[in-house]
Task: inverse folding
């Protein structure tokens, strides 16, 4: 990550409780749908980042796929969400 990752604006935090869902979704479409939904609700286009909060057992390849689509990941120890 470089400094452009933290551009001004706001971000979306997506709490992914079930990692298996990530295998069934298209990350580009997820990003597009989030942006579209926010736009429909009247939010301006100041979105800087989308972050998926995931357990630390997520495979690196899956993390890389989402990050290449512009959805960054924040790892938390498995089972420590609540």
Result:
């Amino acid at each position: 990550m470089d400094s452009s990752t933290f551009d001004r604006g706001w971000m979306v935090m997506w709490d992914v409780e079930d990692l298996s869902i990530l295998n069934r979704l298209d990350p580009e479409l997820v990003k597009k749908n989030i942006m579209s939904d926010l736009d429909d609700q009247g939010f301006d286009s100041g979105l800087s980042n989308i972050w998926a909060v995931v357990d630390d057992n997520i495979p690196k390849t899956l993390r890389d796929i989402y990050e290449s689509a512009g959805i960054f990941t924040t790892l938390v120890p498995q089972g420590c969400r609540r």
Remarks:
- The helical segments are 20-24, 27-40, 60-68.
- Residues 3-76 form one domain.
